[in-house]
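Q: My collaborator sent me two sequences in one message, no labels, and asked for predicted structures for both. Can we handle them in order? The first one she listed is below.
A: Yes, handling them in the order given. First sequence, followed by its structure tokens:
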Amino acid sequence: MENKSLNVNIQKKLKEFDLEVDFELKNGCLGILGPSGCGKSMTLKSVAGIVNPDKGVISLTTDEENLYFDSSKKINLKPQKRNVGYLFQNYALFPNMTVEENVAAGLPKNYDEKIVSDMIKRFRLEGLEKRYPRQLSGGQQQRVALARILAYSPDVILLDEPFSAMDTYLKEQLRIELANLLKDFDGLSILVTHDRDEAFQFCDELLILDEGKIIAKGKTHNIFENPKKVQVARLTGCKNISKIEIIDDYHVKSLDWGVTFELSEKITPNITHIGIRAHSFTPCKHDDINVIDTSNASILEMPFEWEITLANGLWWKQDKPMHEHEFDLPHYLSINPKSIILLED
């Protein structure tokens, strides 16, 4: 496999905030996770050449450095000159072209027809070659768009919220397909999403973006396990976050839930909050460590889990089999000190 490295260090003034993004991607898939309007898609469009940053550098290093954009050297390659594939949210297929014509759209005029037939086969589009986009399902349209991108062997694939407009069934099916595709892809990829499950499933590395600034970056598993900041914890799906009062080196009082917790590591003065994942509680006896009384809890049945909201506002999620509809609520829950996340504001 050829060594590739994508370097992005750009700034752009936007209406709501200034976008400042700086990262290097050396292998696999990078996720950019953040709320709507935080600058995720703008970052992707800058890499593709659809949007021009105000200043900075975007380069792809293979055997040599390919400058896509360099404000100081006044270099700004057109999108067609960057070997980058962009999967738009709506797929951007040409409505007046058939499936095979769409797949061939990015190839030079004298392209080898075997490339198109190979892509048709690879993406299971046999029998659909003469159909137009309006005659295809959402999943088929996405496969055509991906086949069109892969046909010209890009160095980088950019995925802009590729599942945002899909129903749950189709989304889960296509997630598996895309995960397999990226595993076999001999290049770099960036996935923009506001869905923490997608970020966790696809991305080796993760950037958390908020109002145009990177507030966390690193290995995806590490960021989920130790988000370090309140906003990062929220964006990775932590349901229980509370301000704290520090009692001593290993004990804090939650100001939102009125519970005192023992910690597994020594607390430092910069810690202002704690977080507890909703699946981290376990039933226990009243004399256990970090005990919480479940009196007056409200219980909501979902297809595959129970959602329990305790009287003090803590949220517990418990897995359930589909056919079970009765839930025996334990009197007490506990939280392992190692499962309490220490957070800075």
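Q: And the one she listed second?
A: Here it is, processed independently of the first:
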Amino acid sequence: MNGKRMLIGMQMGNGYGSQSNAWRAPNVDLKNFVNVDAHVRYAQAAERGKLQFLFLPDFLSQSQKSNHEAPKLTLDPFITMAIMARETKRIGFAATASTTFYEPYNLARILKALDVVSGGRVGWNAITTSDPASAANYGEQIADRDTRYARAHEVIQIVQALWGSWQEGAWTADRETGIFADLSKIQPINLQGRYVASRGPLEIPPSKQGQPVIFQAGGSPHSLALAGRFASAVIGATFTIEDSKRQRENVRRAAEKAGRDPEGIKFFAGIMPTIAPTKREALDRRGQFVEPNIHQRVGYLGMMLGISLTSDDLDNPLSTHQLASAHANPSDPRSAKALEIAREGWSVRDILYHGIIDYHPSPIGPAQLTADHMQEWFEAGACDGFWFCPDVYEDGIDTFVDEVVPILQQRGLFHKDYEGETLRDHLGIEYQYGLNLPVASD
């Protein structure tokens, strides 16, 4: 990787962990769902590990899927981020906000204010929304994909234009001349698109990094076009090195197509480890989150392997006949890993304890196993860094910081301290202020 070092961001959701049943872990305070002090502790732990940023997801309708699962989201990503930023000094933040249900001026004002008060440590995960229940909360219906992404292009451009509408050097605050700010450098933008518009200006000066960093998540052609044009960081959903390399290259090509340097866009692969001194301890830890709905997962594992499985099979490894019939489902990229684990002789229960149905690869075992996974992917060029999803925040963050991070540092793969003050510094991307593209909604 030519001496480059990996970047690490961390998922920060509901105060419990990335596992939907993390709230049931015995060491978790059940009040953490509404306890921002817990979020602050976790942010400070991540900062102690020199992680580059925290990533706050969002969803605009009910996210709780069953009685035994907690919602996966923060109370509000903007408010939560503001509180965590106030109690940290270097770590960056990326908050998710929809281009479908926010107006450009609202977004520009909130995000730039957060960027200024945090000292230039804020990013925006700009997403469209396709969930009908979310639309219903706004008294609307979901538009088609082309319309949603056309609006997204306009929203991001107008937001960036508003960010730059208070020009650099406008704020002088000179008592001798009596001039607070030069109004000739604080001008309306007067942008009108097909879907959104704004007059401006926005009366907020630049932050230390100029303006917030744009993030994107998704690999569809529409998402890639949006990311290639605007994003500096992309969160991927990959399960193999080969697929991650392909997705990363797609992102880089999209940036080149938009006339940008592909080095200016960083691709992050997800990782959902469970770390314990031994493999068995790690499996048992992960298992506590799998057990509440393990009977539903058995059938899904059968579909992944192309064989029939029931709850009666849970405590047995696959038979010789089952293994002979089993094959990876080509429509599910997680299936190959599930088949690999099954062939190692684990019981069906333990196969599921390996986290093979989770959203990202799940190294299960001692810290070195997670470090080895990250090193292999990074050195293969599969990603620029990782989006780390702790199973349980209460102890999972500290375990990663105290056990995995030192291994990566000793191997020369991860930095030992922050080299700069802003999120752009942390990601190694250029300063930007204002819009440098023509308004269009392609």
